[in-house]
Amino acid sequence: MKTIEQIKSMKNKEKIAVLTCYDYFTAKILDSVGIDIILVGDSLANVVLGYETTRDVTMNEMKIFTEAVARGAKNSFIVGDMPYLSDRNKEEAVKNAKIFVQSGANAVKIEGNKEEIIKAIIKEGIPVMGHLGLLPQTAKKFEMQGKDKEAADKLVKDAKALESYGCFCIVLECVVPELAEKITQNVNIPTIGIGSGKDCDGQVLVINDILGLCDKSPSFAKKYTDLGKEIRKAVENYINDVKK
Predict the structure, then answer these.
(1) Out of 14, 92, 111, 173, which one is annotated catalytic?
(2) What is the C-alpha to C-alpha distance for residues 92 and 117, in angstroms, rounded to an integer?
């Protein structure tokens, strides 16, 4: 398993590969091929549990699926995604971050520039992955971030702030690529892009998107295979065999 220092040292040297994962068997596969970081994302809400938004997934559900991933990925660095309202205050945030660690996570991810919350969790010895740009838990519109100077300047400032709090890396979601590159150059910790261009220190995608297991995927998510089609074909063949 990579350590925090090893992950941080990959900046400007080796791109960091991150994927979401929610179950034991997939975690075993990701572990076996040497993925750098596994994120038990709150996207679990949409792609596994069928909820409308990521705001619907509960802390208890995140706990159960983190435990499943940890049972499968014995050697991978696992990050638990703090769900909506799980970090509403310092006490709640620390309690829930500890639940993630007890469930097998090595770190937690927090959306937004939340100084007191992030510092409180890090003070307890739990590493924090930051998240800036599009913040799905609170976003009213899903659109590219940092398009005007004021918004761009704020994102650069927020990224530097997260670094100063002690975050070990920062997810940049749907940030204008030129701005994502600028942020990457202006902080000393790795940036992990999703829909933010190729110049971040690493990339993260929802595993269902790259495997073709989604009804609709974002335009920036490359589909590497179409398991949905293969599963449909296999099940149809099974039904035909049974009904012969």
Answers:
(1) 173
(2) 9
**Sign, Cα dihedral of 103, 106, 109, 110:** positive
114-130 pLDDT tens trace: 999 999 999 999 999 99
Pairing of strands 37-40, 16-20: parallel
CA distance 99 to 145: 32
Which of helix, strand or coil describes residue 150? helix
Contact 44, 25 (CB under 8 A): no
Q: Indicate if 92 belongs to the active site.
A: no
Tokens of 135: 């913040």
Burial class for 69, CB neighbours closer than 10 Å (0-12, 13-18, 19+): buried
Q: What is the pTM of this model?
A: 0.95
Rounded to a whole number of angstroms, the CA Rg of the chain reads: 18
